Amino acid sequence: MLKSVNLTKKYGNFTALNELNLSVKEGDIFCLLGANGAGKSTTINLFLNFISPSAGSATINGLDVSKHDKETKQLLSYIPENLMLYPNLTGMENLDFFCGLGNKNYSKQELENLLLQSGLQADFMNRRVSSYSKGMRQKVGIALARAREAKVLLLDEPTSGLDPKASNEFSELLLEMKGNGVATLMATHDLFRAKETGTHIGIMKQGVLIEHFESDEVSFQD
Ligand code: ADP
Ligand code: ADP
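Above: the input record for the complex with adenosine-5'-diphosphate. Below: its predicted structure, written as tokens.
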């Protein structure tokens, strides 16, 4: 579903990403690991078409991401480290609003179910998002991905700053999405969690994918 061929991003003389080749298929959770500045966000941002490559290509379903129409974009869901929601609206209202932008209209009951399935407690749904923990906001993000029936998830450090419980819950949700055939590309610092939930692990260093393996090929021992 997601594929990059010699994907490269330069800023002046500086190469943020150098000839990246990867593919992420249905039901894959591809975790990009690496130190700050390794090029993880750059990769995610290229697939989102937030930035343009200097060379090479990023495709989703065989189509260059710069050529995606509105319909194809609907297949994509992006959850950054800090999801932007309207703080003065409730979780329900946020979900309703963002679904509407994608021309999907759900009944109140359906919105509630989406949030419940994404692990948001019922008594929070009608409270303002400003009272939510970060983990709760990320659950709204997952609910939105489900609502849009996203087939591709792009995640940039989605669990950084979450406590272990919230982080576990988030992993569970990712595994559920994987079960539904979603293709996930996730930038993360968390080796342990990458090992736990990832089907593929890529290690990036200074813009280069230096290692790449399927996660059951590795055993991490200290
Ligand atoms: P990571 O997500 O792995 O921390 P990034 O992809 O954010 O790394 O950044 C890779 C490198 O590219 C870093 O050295 C960063 O400073 C640089 N970089 C990112 N965006 C820009 C930009 N707009 N202009 C110049 N350099 C940038
Ligand atoms: P992340 O935590 O995802 O690595 P950063 O804090 O590195 O994010 O970058 C945040 C934003 O600033 C990104 O859009 C990135 O492209 C941009 N950026 C990062 N490094 C630079 C830089 N050296 N010059 C200009 N923009 C940058």
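Notes for the reader.
The beta strands are 2-11, 14-24, 29-33, 55-60, 63-64, 76-79, 152-156, 183-187, 200-205, 208-214.
The chain has seven helices and ten strands.
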